[in-house]
Amino acid sequence: MVVSTPTGDAARALDVLMQAARAAGAMALGHFRRGATTSAKVFWKDGGSPVTVADHEADAFLRDRLSRAFPDAGWLSEETADDARRLDRRHVLVVDPIDGTRAFMRGDERWAVCAALVEDGRPIAGVTHLPARGETFAAARGAGATLNGAALRVAERAELKGARASGPKPLIEGFNAAGAGLVTMEREPSLAYRIVSVAAGRLDIAFASARSHDWDLAAADLILQEAGGALTDLEGIRPLYNRPETRHPELAAAPIALSETLLSAARRARR
């Protein structure tokens, strides 16, 4: 399937992304050992983060499949050398073949294949697929968000005190020192999964530390938005993607009804 004009058909674009993410996930599962160390060979990047053969295989598959489906789109992936020509494209494919590589390596199910189509800096279709859990979170702009085909909605919560929060412990502690009263939950190893857990109502708030990248965020951002939430920095500004700098500041994901209260707490925490 070739989707040469993705702007007018986000739902069709989403279908392509879902099929590709599931196929890439099935490939990665061949190296996954639940509760045990992966069978995939592990390498170490500059800076000390790991990457496996499974990451590279899934990345190559996704680039081939999606670039053929979206021939006019640029490409941005954690496991591919960045090409500045993407900046000249209105559309870009943003991919993380395995978000949560460390979890994948140790046999933890909480890793995801993430793929998004971005238009003019914001995602219009996105998938966060957890192969080991059989869960596919997906969204197309204006069409709502789903989990395995069922509609998703954020938790109906407007009070900050008692809200379930996952993320970097120092960040949560800073909010609580300012009187937020958050309940600290286990930190999900995949940032994308942490964000879509808010979309599914499993968490009320998900935090991301500074220096997360486009590929960690773009797909999950749209899923959260379509489920009634918002991913913003601590000033309330939503991320833009496909910029020269792919890194982002500290971010918070929450239901819209909780966002303003959360941002007020962020201002208090910074005093």
Please provide a written account of the structure.
The chain has seven helices and 16 strands. Helix 1 runs antiparallel to helix 2, helix 4 (169-177) crosses helix 7 and helix 5 runs parallel beside helix 6. A hairpin with a 2-residue loop joins strand 8 (145-147) and strand 9. The chain starts with 9 loop residues before the first helix and ends with a helix. The radius of gyration is 18 Å and the shape is globular. Strands 3-4-5-6-7-8-9 form a seven-stranded mixed beta sheet, sandwiched between helices. A five-stranded mixed beta sheet has the order 11-10-12-16-14, sandwiched between helices. The model has no long low-confidence stretch (mean pLDDT 95). Helices cover 32% and strands 26% of the residues. The protein has 271 residues and is an alpha+beta fold. The longest helix has 20 residues, at 10-29. It folds into two domains: 6-151, Fructose-1,6-Bisphosphatase, subunit A, domain 1 (Fructose-1,6-Bisphosphatase, Chain A, domain 1, 2-Layer Sandwich); 164-269, D-Maltodextrin-Binding Protein, domain 2 (3-Layer(aba) Sandwich), CATH 3.40.190.
